[in-house]
User: Which sequence fits this backbone?
């Protein structure tokens, strides 16, 4: 458990200065594998950054802390609705609990489709589906690696 706390502290030391440099553009939830809270940073019209703290549930429980960025590569319309297509990369750490106690460092390539809309008198929202595939290296008694997957449906409110 001491290793997990040390890793979380090191990740926070890296992510928090980056987050403080640019004001938070949106905050919301991601539902999927893992499920958690996300903070988005609008860097410009094509680039977005984000930081997510999420929990993996199921046979193995873990906390997944990631920071990532994505670039809008295309857009398409279905009737009046305009969707953005994004690609990017995310990196972070998974802290496992229970029988799988340990830490893994993961890097994933991501792809997402997002839709923006305004709800009158409430504000601006974005809903997205983001999938990521990459590689994770587990740091425990033995060092091991393997394919790593993440996928979530997210909804953020623009501040």
Assistant:
């Amino acid at each position: 458990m001491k290793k997990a706390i040390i890793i979380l502290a090191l990740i926070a030391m890296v992510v928090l200065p980056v987050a403080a440099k640019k004001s938070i553009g949106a905050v919301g939830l991601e539902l999927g594998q893992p499920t958690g809270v996300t903070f988005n940073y609008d860097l410009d019209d094509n680039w977005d950054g984000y930081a997510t703290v999420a929990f993996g549930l199921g046979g193995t429980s873990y906390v997944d802390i990631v920071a990532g960025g994505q670039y809008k590569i295309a857009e398409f319309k279905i009737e009046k609705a305009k969707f953005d297509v994004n690609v990017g990369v995310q990196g972070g750490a998974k802290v496992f609990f229970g029988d799988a106690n340990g830490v893994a460092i993961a890097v994933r390539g991501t792809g997402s489709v997002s839709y923006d809309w305004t709800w009158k008198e409430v504000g601006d929202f974005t809903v997205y589906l983001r999938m990521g595939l990459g590689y994770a290296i587990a740091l425990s008694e033995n060092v091991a690696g393997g394919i790593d997957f993440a996928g979530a449906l997210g909804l953020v409110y623009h501040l």
The chain has a mean pLDDT of 84. The first strand starts at residue 26 and ends at 33. The CA atoms of residues 85 and 113 lie 5 Å apart. The helical segments are 2-21.
